[in-house]
Design a protein that fits this description.
With about 300 residues, the chain is of the alpha/beta class. It contains 13 helices and eight strands. Helix content is about 45%, strand content about 15%. α5 packs parallel to α7. The termini are far apart.
Length: about 300
């Protein structure tokens, strides 16, 4: 099946419906040892160099160039200039679903048209099952590490709808012991062992902000996709995102917030706004290159856990 690389949230159901296999190239970055030739953000620079070095076998690339990751715009063009067919998608800053519908229709043409209409419903049903896993994680019946692994993979369903559904069927419940309930805001940490370290300190992540977006947005046709995905919080104004966060933080009974920020990412500039508007104990962690969680970060996480325990 033709593999389509995606650099941020692109409806995987649409790619499957076009008879192709979505591949979220971000998910290769945390385990990469590649040292990018030049970079602002390690995320985009590493997937860029992985493609240019033929370490990722892709037939198409879809770059989210507006409304999410701005660094991807230039790195995507570098890939396109080397001959890989590339589509640049721009999310609306407001809730203009007609604009997004036009974008998705152009993407459909780029991918050769819809061939598998059933894929829309199949992916929607899988996302419902993942939301159930998220609820169990909130209830302390599934580890945050396992829930994150599943939810972050929902961006592309690992390229295989049937295989991913079998993965969900094998998820086992367990009673999770923890001291505090944490919301992890921002982009997913570039440290592959981050959730494991949080759990070892008694910090149970009940909300992974970006992976939750992968799961909650869906539709069974382009009209529904446009109306749903135009509410992608990372692409909307901060007032919209804050209102959504306030609701989720309350629903999940959060004790504290960890905001993960990536070096040279424009989302770093949102940190002071979150601190002023979200009334919770707050810790900001900034990462750069993929590696195991550093000793310095571990010490800060330990201190944060102790502070929450004393409240």
């Amino acid at each position: 099946m033709t593999k389509v690389g995606i650099t941020a949230l692109i409806p995987p159901e649409l790619i499957f419906a076009c008879g192709k296999k979505p591949c979220d190239i971000n998910n290769f970055v945390p385990l990469s040892n590649l040292q990018p030739s030049n970079k602002l953000c390690a995320w985009t620079a590493i997937w860029r160099d992985m493609i240019l070095k033929n370490e990722l076998a892709l037939e198409y690339l879809v770059v989210v160039a507006g409304g999410d990751c701005h660094n991807a715009l230039v790195d995507g063009q570098k890939v396109e200039m080397k001959g890989l067919p590339t589509f640049f998608l721009f999310y609306p800053f407001d809730d203009d679903s007609d604009y997004l519908k036009d974008q998705l229709e152009e993407l459909t043409v780029f991918l050769g048209g819809i061939k598998e209409h059933k894929a829309f419903k199949e992916v929607k049903e899988i996302k419902k099952k993942i939301l159930e896993i998220d609820d169990k994680r909130i209830a302390g019946k599934i580890s945050a590490e396992k829930a994150f692994e599943i939810m972050v993979s929902a961006s592309d369903l690992r390229g295989d709808i049937s295989e991913f559904e079998r993965l969900l069927e094998n998820v086992k419940e367990e009673d999770i012991d923890f001291l505090s309930r944490i919301a992890l805001l921002g982009v997913p940490p570039i440290y592959p062992d981050f959730h494991e370290n949080l759990a070892s300190l008694g910090l149970h992540v009940v909300y992974d902000e970006l992976p939750y977006e992968f799961v909650r947005l869906s539709g069974v046709n382009i009209d529904e996709l446009a109306k749903s995905y135009c509410n992608y919080t990372f692409a909307r104004n901060l007032d919209f995102r804050l209102k959504f966060l306030e609701k989720e933080l309350k629903r999940r009974r959060v004790d504290g917030i960890i905001h993960y920020t990536q070096f040279a990412c424009h989302h770093l500039l949102e940190d002071d706004i979150f601190r002023k508007n979200l009334n919770y104990p707050f810790l900001t962690i900034q990462g750069d290159m993929p590696k195991k969680t550093t000793k310095q970060v571990k010490l800060r996480l330990e201190a944060f856990s102790e502070m929450l325990g004393s409240l």
